[in-house]
Design a protein that fits this description.
The protein has about 120 residues and is an all-alpha fold. Helices cover about 85% and strands about 0% of the residues. Helix 2 (about 35-55) runs antiparallel to helix 3 (about 60-75). The longest helix is centred in the C-terminal third of the chain and has 26 residues, at about 95-119. The chain is globular and about 50 Å long. The two termini are about 30 Å apart.
Amino acid sequence: MNFLYVFLGGGLGSICRYGIAVVMKSYHLTFPYATLIANILSCIVLGYLVALTQRSALSSTYALIFATGFCGGFSTFSTFSVETFALFSNGHPFLALANIGFSLLVCLGAIYLGMKLGG
């Protein structure tokens, strides 16, 4: 059953990430905002879920569905990496470095925010 829970949560997370990408695509932006937004939101949700888990307020089933499945499907390190590489390759080193630094700092802050909201 655990695999099914992760599968369902991961599918939902992937659909949400795709939805953000579809909406952002219409803006024709150079910077990969869709991935950044998905990763920030995923970090907030994961931080919140971690805080609930630490207080024993989240069952293991819901942790599998939402923390492992949804957040795993919603956030994406591989897309972040490909988009950052593309920025470097296309002559945008400042945007590539900004993406790395901003993503790291903001996502760490988002984890903290989520934990505070859940805690």
